[in-house]
Amino acid sequence: MISIIIPAYNEEKYLPKLLECIKKQTYKDYEIIVADANSKDRTRQIAKKHGCRTVNGGMPSVGRNNGAKAAKGDILLFLDADSLIEKDFLENALGDIEKRNLDVAGSYLHPLSGKFTDRIFLAIFNAWTCTTQFFYPNACGSGIFCKKSLHEKVNGFDETIKLSEDMDYVRRAGKYGKFRIIKNSKLVYSMRRYDKEGRFRVGLKLLLSAIYRLFFGEIRSDVFNYNLRYRK
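Structure (tokenized):
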């Protein structure tokens, strides 16, 4: 069984769409755990209505770790509440994991918007994760698979990291297990943060954070002022 873990905060607008995508999956052996960070809207009620288990959340890393602790599955899948997946996403991804004997894996991202600039932006990101997968694992937290035993071995996500905790997670997991990017499963990535803050500004933050991590290590302060807990 696979345990799908979704950290959420005020996601009543987006969560139902993702849960409907999961319901339509061709692969049916899964459970859904929503780690709710004390939402002020109907997020928790929506999760329960769709048959999800709920746990207390917090920042994304806290929610993911709490969800993993409650998980019954051998494989964990971390998704963002505003992402979407095709109906054969789980079947194709798990088939690829088994075929290539993977322990941890990331996903290629496709923009939810139809903007050409967003396709270019994510194409660059996908090219980067594809290139670095063999020697320095990188993956977006919107779609990470990991064997539960490996998650526990690396002590989950580092909750002290302020930005790029997902990159740190797969890098550490990749030291003990085989990491690759899954190519045959389409994950549709929300660009709402880019809509609000501006594509250039968010892109610059992510670029600078990658350079910072390369030279100074993980980001444990709010030096980039990146709000991980999104509200709208």
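The mean pLDDT is 92. The chain has one domain: 2-216.
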